[in-house]
């Protein structure tokens, strides 16, 4: 009996010990898990506190923007500048906007040109030229010619004074007006006041009679009352002026019996008094008119005063042609002079001030050349 009790007691204690071990093991495992969970919670809590302290929550909904020193080269208007650049790019990339302007001018130029098969390269060249205006000029001969020259039989007649040729031409065209119209002159241009100044246009590329034939025909009407007027309109036409046939000798011969003042009266009825571009051209066509024309249009002011006024008005194109017009005359001879040096100093002052007009650059070179010319 006691033996059984002792065994039972031993077994009970063993079970108790085993349970204690199991409980201790379980408690140890549970404690380890609690420790890891506690550490995680601590880290999270510390991190939250740290974030809260460094970035406190704002009650307002506005966002605080930190301002930095971006340096002196930073453009504060960068965004608006980029917007403007983008707008310009959009306009350039838009073919309808660019093409419309170009096509408008192309159509205008093409409408004034007689040959409908005119080269597209020529049209494009004119359209692109928007600064100098080099293609706009006085074009009296702007229609296709209908002129019929004399027969070969009249050409072969021995006649030192060309009476046979003159009579043959005047039989076909009884008046100078009829001849001028047959040569392709646009007489409607003369209905405008000062037409040689105000009715400049593009060359119509019309079909023309050879210049020497036109000159010979016009020379047959020197007794016509309108001869001086039509002759001036003819010789100042850019196409005629640039030809090798129409020179100072022929023009002077045609007006040999006419006084200078009478010619100038007709001329100034066709041209604005300040049109130095055309004055220069006339002085090269009929050189004897240079000094009388200077006296007529510049007086009562002096050449220096007109030069200064043109500079003040910034009318550099007129300034260039004014200088070309007056030099070589009795009033403004070539060579060293105080007036030429004054002109040169004025032009150099304008160039040094940053004026980039191409006419001033040309003028500075011309005046330097004029100072070096010595006429014995």
TrEMBL record:
Domain of life assignment: Eukaryota
Biological processes per GO annotation: DNA repair
Coiled coil: none
Species of the source: Zygosaccharomyces rouxii
Cellular component aspect of the GO annotation: Smc5-Smc6 complex
Molecular function per GO: ATPase inhibitor activity; SUMO transferase activity
Transmembrane segment boundaries: none
Protein name: Uncharacterized protein
UniProt region (Disordered), positions on chain: 1-59
Pfam entry (one): Nse5
Extent of Basic residues compositional bias: 50-59
């Amino acid at each position: 009996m006691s033996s059984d009790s002792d065994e039972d007691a031993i077994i009970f204690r063993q079970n108790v010990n085993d349970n204690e071990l199991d409980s201790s093991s379980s408690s140890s495992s549970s404690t380890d898990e609690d420790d890891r969970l506690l550490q995680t919670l601590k880290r999270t809590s510390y991190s939250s506190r740290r974030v809260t302290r460094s970035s406190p929550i704002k009650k307002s909904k506005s966002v605080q923007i930190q301002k930095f020193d971006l340096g002196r080269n930073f453009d504060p208007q960068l965004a608006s500048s980029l917007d403007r650049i983008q707008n310009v790019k959009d306009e350039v990339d838009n073919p309808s906007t660019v093409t419309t302007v170009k096509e408008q001018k192309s159509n205008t130029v093409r409408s004034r040109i007689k040959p409908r098969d005119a080269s597209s390269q020529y049209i494009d060249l004119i359209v692109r030229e928007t600064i100098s205006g080099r293609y706009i000029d006085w074009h009296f001969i702007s229609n296709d010619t209908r002129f019929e020259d004399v027969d070969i039989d009249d050409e072969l007649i021995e006649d030192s004074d060309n009476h046979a040729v003159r009579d043959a031409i005047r039989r076909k065209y009884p008046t100078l007006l009829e001849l001028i119209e047959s040569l392709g002159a646009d007489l409607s241009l003369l209905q405008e006041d000062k037409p040689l100044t105000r009715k400049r246009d593009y060359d119509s590329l019309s079909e023309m009679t050879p210049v020497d034939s036109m000159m010979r025909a016009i020379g047959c009407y020197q007794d016509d009352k309108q001869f001086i007027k039509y002759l001036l309109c003819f010789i100042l036409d850019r196409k005629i002026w640039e030809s090798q046939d129409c020179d100072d000798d022929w023009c002077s011969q045609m007006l040999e019996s006419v006084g200078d003042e009478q010619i100038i009266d007709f001329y100034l009825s066709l041209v604005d008094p300040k049109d130095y571009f055309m004055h220069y051209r006339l002085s090269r066509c009929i050189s004897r008119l240079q000094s009388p024309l200077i006296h007529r249009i510049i007086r009562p002011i002096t050449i220096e005063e007109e030069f200064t006024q043109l500079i003040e008005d910034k009318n550099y194109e007129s300034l260039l042609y004014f200088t070309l017009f007056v030099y070589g005359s009795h009033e403004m001879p070539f060579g060293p002079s105080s007036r030429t040096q004054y002109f040169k100093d004025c032009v150099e002052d304008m160039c040094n001030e940053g004026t980039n007009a191409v006419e001033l650059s040309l003028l500075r070179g011309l005046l330097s050349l004029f100072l070096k010319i010595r006429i014995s």
